């Protein structure tokens, strides 16, 4: 499988910062949030409020620091053995010859989401979108994150090939969860994305977790009135 380092995109967007919400951009007149928020939202929506609405800053956890280190190392190794390519050229070429890429940026103004796919396999018969996570447990939040990557990729490309989303144990080749991006899955993730858009525009309330274990390990617990 060819390795292609995506360095260029045909489509360019005018991107502005949201006037009051950290992390949110205005793209094509619509609020656009990072797909990684879906992981955080599944853990505790109130984290999103504390970090991005109230602007509370905390130190990264050891797990976050270690994850970033491994991610950077894998990216540098990949760049050494890959060929630079435009995104659209890689997608078209993959219809006849398989390739893989890392750190592929996807932006879907239609749904107000954007993010960077850890790894993507483009094959003549299918597209496999992979997100690296610590451990081997497919949480609802991490599954939703991959589903949103699938939605954004499909929206960008109009892809008609079968799309699969997968979770991989960080630093290994172990794909511990994989799912076909069916119309039903697409419907479900659109519903969740719409909820977050409601949190951003104030039409829906932020719901804190009711799990005391999550509160005890939360990096925002000292700033949260709901902490247990």
Automatic annotation (TrEMBL):
<dbReference type="InterPro" id="IPR013343">
    <property type="entry name" value="CRISPR-assoc_prot_Cas4"/>
</dbReference>
<keyword id="KW-0411">Iron-sulfur</keyword>
<dbReference type="GO" id="GO:0051607">
    <property type="term" value="P:defense response to virus"/>
</dbReference>
<protein>
    <recommendedName>
        <fullName>CRISPR-associated exonuclease Cas4</fullName>
        <ecNumber>3.1.12.1</ecNumber>
    </recommendedName>
</protein>
<comment type="function">
    <text>CRISPR (clustered regularly interspaced short palindromic repeat) is an adaptive immune system that provides protection against mobile genetic elements (viruses, transposable elements and conjugative plasmids). CRISPR clusters contain sequences complementary to antecedent mobile elements and target invading nucleic acids. CRISPR clusters are transcribed and processed into CRISPR RNA (crRNA).</text>
</comment>
<keyword id="KW-0051">Antiviral defense</keyword>
<dbReference type="GO" id="GO:0051536">
    <property type="term" value="F:iron-sulfur cluster binding"/>
</dbReference>
<dbReference type="GO" id="GO:0046872">
    <property type="term" value="F:metal ion binding"/>
</dbReference>
<dbReference type="Pfam" id="PF01930">
    <property type="entry name" value="Cas_Cas4"/>
</dbReference>
<dbReference type="InterPro" id="IPR011604">
    <property type="entry name" value="PDDEXK-like_dom_sf"/>
</dbReference>
<dbReference type="GO" id="GO:0004527">
    <property type="term" value="F:exonuclease activity"/>
</dbReference>
<comment type="similarity">
    <text>Belongs to the CRISPR-associated exonuclease Cas4 family.</text>
</comment>
<keyword id="KW-0464">Manganese</keyword>
<feature type="domain" description="DUF83">
    <location>
        <begin position="39"/>
        <end position="224"/>
    </location>
</feature>
<dbReference type="InterPro" id="IPR051827">
    <property type="entry name" value="Cas4_exonuclease"/>
</dbReference>
<keyword id="KW-0378">Hydrolase</keyword>
<keyword id="KW-0269">Exonuclease</keyword>
<keyword id="KW-0479">Metal-binding</keyword>
<keyword id="KW-0408">Iron</keyword>
<dbReference type="InterPro" id="IPR022765">
    <property type="entry name" value="Dna2/Cas4_DUF83"/>
</dbReference>
<keyword id="KW-0540">Nuclease</keyword>
